[in-house]
């Protein structure tokens, strides 16, 4: 059971990172389209 827990963490981290990066690029594209800075 512990080995499954250790093996699943990289998958969870990768999914969270993918969601964050996807949201960032979506916001960046929207800001570019509206001619605004992202910050």
UniProtKB/TrEMBL annotation:
Keywords: Membrane, Transmembrane, Transmembrane helix. This is Uncharacterized protein. The chain crosses the membrane at residues 6-25. InterPro entries: Trnsprt_adja_ssu-like (IPR049820).
């Amino acid at each position: 059971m512990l080995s499954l827990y250790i093996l699943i963490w990289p998958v969870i981290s990768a999914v969270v990172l993918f969601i964050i990066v996807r949201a960032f690029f979506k916001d960046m594209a929207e800001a570019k389209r509206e001619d605004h800075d992202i910050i």
